[in-house]
Amino acid sequence: MEDLGQAIRGKKAKVAVIGLGYVGLPVACSFARAGFQVLGVERDETRAAQIGAGICPIGGREPGLAELLNEVIEGGRLQVTTDSSECRDAEVALIAVETPVDSVSKKPSYEALRAALRDLGPNLGPGCLLVIESTIAPQTMERIVKPLLEETSGLKADEDFHLAYCPERVMPGKLLANLRTCNRVIGGMSPAAAGLARELYRHIVEADLDTTDALTAELVKTTENAYRDVQIAFANEIALLCENVGADVYQVRRLVNKSPYRDMHVPGAGVGGHCTPKDPWLLVHGTEGKLQPKLIPTARGINDGMPLHVAALAEEGLAEAGRPVKGAKVAVLGYSYLENTSDARNSPTVPLVERLQALQATVVIHDPHFAEYSIDLEEAVTGSDCVVIMVAHDEYRNVDLTDLRAWVATPVLIDGRNIFDKATARELGFVYKGVGNR
Ligand code: SAJ
To answer: Do 143 and 260 fall within a single domain?
Structure first.
């Protein structure tokens, strides 16, 4: 361990990063910038070639990432391969592959993780440190990661190699910044592993590095996102109650949050992304036992219901304007799951569009961050009978409602992200319905 610790402290350890997605790519670039020799292993050949040429495959606004990638590729600090056998001389290996949950069973789909472990196992050298960054259900390190690595490497965890879990805390739009400034939890399968991982991350993380055991770290990561999902569900439920009584939930939220120790989240058209809708299910899956959770699954149901609620508001708005939804042209603004990003994973717009099409509306999707949807906004909404705001992109916040009114055929505006003022919209003749503010 001492040699490895020394190699890590001196940045002499070769670092392999398996999976160059939203998590792995910024991590690989950050360790390369810190002075390590980094090997990025990416199974997608096109993506590997792009990154190897210094071209950042992540769209949207990611301050500093494209420049840093180009710098470390030019400087030879980061090399990219699709061949995991090139990891054999790495003293440190990080795995940052996707860990989705099955859309029906809500159970984790660990195909990518298992494949990465199977590929790495035979190339795992004695004395190295392996860190999982992907979000995993509690008990996964003990039940899946450790046995699979020991089986495929023939080595013994804690004796021949060190194993730790350090969950990512990235967010699209702030990938590099969050990596540097967010506190990190490091769960070691042994205290020695946690200590080595802490030495490693100290080179790229300026915030706290809290070491603990792997199970605690798995619980922390999934709990922090379940917490957020429940908080958002609470805000969405208050929005629905405000609709019942004709109140403005955003005014209610503003004043609630002036009360000490309150932090009511923002209601809206739904909860998408690669973390918040998925991690509560990982938490529930990994803690199965006699005691059953009620709040967490219920919150998921509330949040998954919001896009359908937006569709109901559109139906209502069209009816008020004397237009049946069948055959109506509906312009849906926003395809990504989060404002000003090009990330559509688990986007609430998908179930909304499915519902509107099931109601036989003609749907036009617009989103400036997706080539296939970045038609001219005026063209997208011209002649529409209903405009639905699903994502608070800056481009939509800057739309002049007078222009919008002139472009539409029937003035129905459904505001899923509270970006327009209800009174102004109504003065211009819109049938305006906002989530929690109708
Ligand atoms: N959303 C709401 N209301 C809110 C907050 C979010 O409806 O008050 C919606 C968003 O529109 C989006 C979805 O929820 O559709 C997820 O939003 P998010 O801000 O949680 O974005 P994520 O999924 O990228 O969350 C990540 C998480 N980070 C990690 O898992 C490492 C989350 O824990 C962070 O709090 C978040 O980034 C962040 O703000 O950094």
So the answer is: no
Ligand 1 binding pocket mutation candidate from 182, 275, 333, 435 (most atoms within 8 A of CB): 275
Cα of 341 vs centre of ligand 1, distance in Å, is 12
Last residue of a domain, one of 215, 239, 255: 215
Q: Report the C-alpha gap between 75 and 93 in whole angstroms.
A: 21
Please tell me whether residues 290 and 435 are part of one structural domain. yes
Of 101, 165, 221, 276, the one to substitute when testing ligand 1's pocket (max ligand atoms within 8 A of C-beta) is: 276
Give residue-wise pLDDT tens across range 112-121: 999 999 999 9
Separation of CA 161 and ligand 1 centre (Å): 35
Ligand 1 atom 1: residue of nearest CA: 271
Range of the domain at 244: 223-438
Nearest CA to ligand 1 atom 24: 171
105 and 159: one domain? yes
Helix (H, G, I), strand (E, B) or coil at 433: strand
User: Cβ(435)–Cβ(420) under 8 Å?
Assistant: no
Which atom of ligand 1 is the closest one to the Cα of 274? 23
Q: Sign of dihedral through CA atoms 78, 79, 81, 85?
A: negative
Give yes or no: residues 273 and 390 share one domain: yes
Active-site amino acid positions: 221, 275
How would residue 342 be classed by pLDDT, with cut points 50, 70 and 90? Answer: confident
Q: Specify the pTM.
A: 0.93
Write the DSSP string, 110-155: -HHHHHHHHHHGGGPPTT-EEEE-S---TTHIIIIIHHHHHHHH--
The residue type found at 420 is F
- Chain centre to alpha carbon of residue 96: 13
When divided into structural domains, the chain yields a total of: 2
Write the Ramachandran bin of 222: left for phi over 0, alpha for psi from -120 to 50, otherwise beta: alpha
Do 209 and 242 lie in one domain? The reply is no
Ligand 1: list residues with CB < 6 Å.
168-172, 224-225, 228, 232, 265-266, 268, 271-273, 275-276, 337-338
Domain CATH number, residue 29: 3.40.50.720
8 Å CB contact between 133 and 24: yes
Domain end (from 182, 215, 248): 215
Atom of ligand 1 nearest to the CA of 174: 40
The backbone region for 107, taken as left when phi is positive above 0, alpha when psi lies in -120 to 50, beta otherwise, is beta
12-33 pLDDT, tens digit each = 999 999 999 999 999 999 999 9
148 and 9 within one domain: yes
Count each helix (H run) and each strand (E run) in the chain, helices first: 18, 13
